[in-house]
Automatic annotation (TrEMBL):
Superkingdom in the source lineage: Bacteria
Name the UniProt record assigns to this protein: Oxidoreductase
Molecular function via GO: nucleotide binding
Species per Swiss-Prot/TrEMBL record: Companilactobacillus crustorum
Residue stretches making up the GFO/IDH/MocA-like oxidoreductase domain: 140-248
Length: 321
C-alpha cells in the first residue's frame, strides 16, 4: 500500500521505527500542521518519506497514496477519517476509532458505500499470542471470571493535577482512562467473548474526567472486570479463570508479551509466539494484505469487532452519567 501518515506525535514516531521491515508498505507522505513543519521534515529525512504536507485537503488532492493512517488526537479521528473516505482513500485509524458511537457508524456506512477499507489500529487483535490464546481457551473449561488490569501512572497526570489539561485528560477531546488505556482491555475481551449482556462503568472522576475506573461486563455465566488507571500503578496483567484451569496474560493487553496456562496452581506451559518484537508490526502486515487484495470481507469482520467495542464504550459512558 502507498501510505500517508497524518500526525507527528508519539505514536507516529513509534510506528516509523518498524517501517523498514514493512516491505510492502511505501511511505509516500506525512501530513501535519505548519507548527509541526520542522518535525515533519526531520521524519521525512530519517525515514525516507516522499512528501510533506501541512494541509490535509492539499494532500488528499495531490498526494500519491491510497491509504491514510490517522494518528492524531482522539477527537480528530472522525473528521480526518471522513475526509479521506470521501476522497476515495482507505483509512487506518488509531484507537479509539471515534469519540462517539454515532461517528463510528457514519464512517462505517461511508466506507461500505464507497467500497473502501476502514480499519482500526488495535494491536492485540493481530498478535500471534492473542490468536494462540483464543485457541487455548477451551483447555481451561467454562470461563467464569476475567480480570484485566492495565494501570500505568501517567507523567501527564502530574501536569493535570497542576492545572494543565492535555488531550489525554480533556473530556472535550476524547480523553480519560476508559478511552485511552482501558480500551485495550475492552478489545481483548470483546475479541474473546463478543458483545456483553450488560455494561457498567465505575470511574474515579477528577475535574470532569475519569483518571481511572472499573468496567464491569456481564456475559451471563462469565463475569469480567476491566481496570484502566492513569492515576495509579499496579502489576499489569490479565487473569482468565475457567473451571478446569486459568490463563495469565503477562503485561499490557496491547502488547501480549506472553501468557501462562495453568491447571489449578500447576503451570502447564508458557507461550510466546509473537513473530516480531514490536507490537504494531503484525497489524500493519495484515492491513497491507487486506488493502492489496481488497479483502472487504476481512475488513468487515474487523470493523464489526470495532463496532462492538465502540458500543461497549458508549454504554459504559452512559452508565457513568
Amino acid at each position: 500500500m502507498k501510505l500517508a501518515i497524518i500526525g507527528s506525535g508519539k505514536i507516529v514516531h513509534d510506528f516509523l521505527t518498524i517501517t523498514k521491515d514493512l516491505k510492502d508498505t511505501e511511505l509516500t507522505a506525512i501530513i501535519g500542521t505548519k507548527h509541526s513543519q520542522d518535525v515533519l521534515n526531520q521524519l521525512q529525512d530519517q525515514y525516507h518519506i516522499n512528501e510533506v504536507f501541512t494541509d490535509f485537503d492539499t494532500a488528499l488532492a495531490t498526494g500519491d497514496f491510497d491509504t491514510v493512517y490517522v494518528a492524531v488526537p482522539n477527537f480528530l479521528h472522525y473528521t480526518f477519517a471522513k475526509k479521506a473516505l470521501e476522497q476515495g482513500k482507505n483509512v487506518i485509524s488509531e484507537k479509539p476509532f471515534t469519540v462517539k458511537y454515532e461517528e463510528f457508524l457514519d464512517l462505517k456506512a461511508l466506507a461500505e458505500k464507497n467500497q473502501l477499507v476502514l480499519l482500526e489500529a488495535i494491536t492485540n487483535q493481530y498478535l500471534q499470542n492473542y490468536l494462540d490464546l483464543k485457541k487455548k481457551l477451551p483447555d481451561i473449561g467454562d470461563l467464569k471470571i476475567i480480570e484485566s488490569n492495565y494501570s500505568q501512572y501517567s507523567s501527564r497526570y502530574d501536569a493535570f493535577r497542576a492545572g494543565e489539561i492535555l488531550p489525554v485528560f480533556d473530556p472535550k477531546k476524547g480523553g480519560g482512562a476508559l478511552m485511552d488505556i482501558n480500551i485495550y482491555n475492552i478489545h481483548l475481551i470483546v475479541g474473546l467473548l463478543g458483545k456483553p449482556e450488560q455494561v457498567e462503568y465505575l470511574p474515579n472522576i477528577e475535574r470532569g474526567i475519569d483518571t481511572s475506573g472499573m468496567l464491569i461486563l456481564n456475559y451471563g455465566t462469565t463475569k469480567v472486570v476491566a481496570i484502566g488507571a492513569k492515576d495509579s500503578t499496579a502489576p499489569i496483567r490479565t487473569v482468565i479463570q475457567g473451571n478446569k484451569g486459568s490463563i495469565v496474560v503477562n503485561g499490557p493487553t496491547n502488547e501480549m508479551d506472553s501468557f501462562n496456562v495453568y491447571d489449578n496452581d500447576k503451570l502447564l506451559e508458557k507461550i510466546n509466539h509473537n513473530i516480531y518484537p514490536h507490537r504494531m508490526y503484525q497489524e500493519f502486515v495484515e492491513f497491507e494484505r487486506i488493502i492489496r487484495e481488497n479483502d472487504l470481507e476481512a475488513a468487515e469482520k474487523h470493523l464489526n469487532h470495532s463496532q462492538t467495542v465502540m458500543w461497549v464504550v458508549k454504554e459504559a459512558l452512559k452508565s457513568a452519567d
